[in-house]
Design a protein that fits this description.
It is built from eight helices and 19 strands. The protein is of the alpha+beta class and about 350 residues long. Helix 2 packs across helix 3 and helix 3 packs across helix 4. It binds adenosine-5'-diphosphate (ADP).
Length: about 350
């Protein structure tokens, strides 16, 4: 294994326990994304890997060798921060070359590597410019170039797209994916944005309150979330949830009985249990379906977003969002019938919120 994090904890000097028993193994070349809401410990973990923050307990291995005590330079990591931290008085060329110049690398070698890096990043035509004459996206590419050129084993990125506007973010996101594809560098990337995580990652680490909630591929997290938090965090709009108690194989939502016996072979074992019922907005169908549960709800509001429309529904107590083809947009203030296929129904334990 290339990188191993074993029972890593971070307790800050003020006593705050920011990261709890973090365990992860990363293979060479993987693109790993740490995702979760602000304050969940993503940056702290990344900074411990970078050597910018000491590890309170646990073991951090690179290539099987303990690296806890190694300084940032010895760890062979390069980090890209959200603020680009470029030198304003230096050209793009000099900014990219800076790390190598400091190391006293031969001019010819530097030039060759700057040109190669600039080519990968589409910066060849901008090498003579100063950072202030670049767009936000171009500056971010220079910052990435400065890290890339060092040819380190591990590439760390902390919210690198957060200073870009929405359009630049989408462009830069696909460029980062492309750069990773070309360089094959092991990358650990921090974001609070589930879309960035889903589109970039080989594997995602979902964190909350300093604890890992689940580690998995984007598909695994989307289709088999471990708990209510992951189910609600991954996917946009988020999964719909409603609490209820299983009685006679059904859950009651208002005056509706949702029969679980088809969806769950273990239905009898769930009898009397308090559960969280979940389904994704995009998993419903409007036409009658076999192997599906039927629901009725009032349409409160519709939001046309192009090829699909978000439909906000309620039964008076619960609220949910359905994603429908814009051609099938229902009328507001009318009752809507829809079907949730059995395989798209999720149940979570009402107490632990873990998947059932
Ligand atoms: P994230 O990157 O997920 O937004 P951070 O890793 O930056 O979260 O922070 C995790 C928690 O640790 C937060 O509650 C934050 O306030 C706290 N924290 C961060 N740095 C320090 C510090 N130097 N001293 C004490 N607490 C800190």
């Amino acid at each position: 294994m290339y990188i191993t994090l074993k029972d890593i904890n971070k307790i800050y000097p003020n006593g705050y326990h920011a990261v709890h028993n973090f365990n992860l193994e990363i293979e060479k070349g993987e693109f790993i994304v740490f995702v979760g809401p602000s304050g969940c410990g993503k940056s702290t973990t990344l900074r411990m890997i970078a050597g910018l923050e000491n590890i309170s307990s646990g073991e951090f291995l690179i290539n099987g060798e303990r690296a806890n005590e190694k300084g940032p330079r010895e760890r062979e990591v390069a980090m890209v921060f959200q603020s680009y931290a470029l030198y304003p008085q230096m050209t793009v060329y000099d900014n990219i070359a800076f790390g190598l110049t400091l190391q006293g690398v031969d001019e010819d070698v530097i030039e060759e590597r700057v040109m190669k890096t600039a080519k990968i990043l589409g910066l060849t035509d901008y090498l003579d410019r100063l950072p202030r004459a670049l767009s936000g996206g171009q500056r971010q590419r220079v910052a990435i170039g400065r890290a890339l050129i060092r040819k380190v084993g591990i590439f760390l990125m902390d919210e690198p797209l957060s200073n870009l506007d929405a359009k630049q973010r989408v462009t830069m996101r696909s460029e980062i994916a492309q750069i990773h594809h070309e360089t094959g560098a092991t990358t650990i990337y921090v974001t609070h944005d589930q879309t960035e995580a889903m589109t970039l990652a080989d594997r995602i680490v979902v964190m909350k309150d300093g604890y890992i909630q689940q580690v998995g591929t984007p598909k695994e997290l989307y289709f088999t979330p471990a708990n209510v938090f992951v189910a609600g965090f991954i996917g946009e709009p988020p999964m719909n949830f409603a609490r209820g108690t299983v009685k006679n194989g059904c859950i009651a939502f208002g005056d509706q009985q949702v029969d679980l016996s088809g969806a769950r072979k273990d239905c009898a074992a769930l009898e009397g249990k308090e559960v969280v019922f979940g389904f994704r907005p995009e998993s419903i169908v409007l036409q009658p379906q076999e192997k599906a549960v039927k629901m009725r709800s009032m349409v409160e509001l519709t939001e046309m977003l192009g090829d699909y429309t978000n439909v906000y529904i309620t039964n008076g107590e619960q609220h949910a969002i359905l994603k429908v083809d814009s051609h099938d947009t229902p009328e507001t203030d009318q009752e809507l019938e829809f079907y949730i296929p059995w395989e798209s129904i999720y149940l979570f334990d009402g107490q632990t919120e873990n998947v059932l």
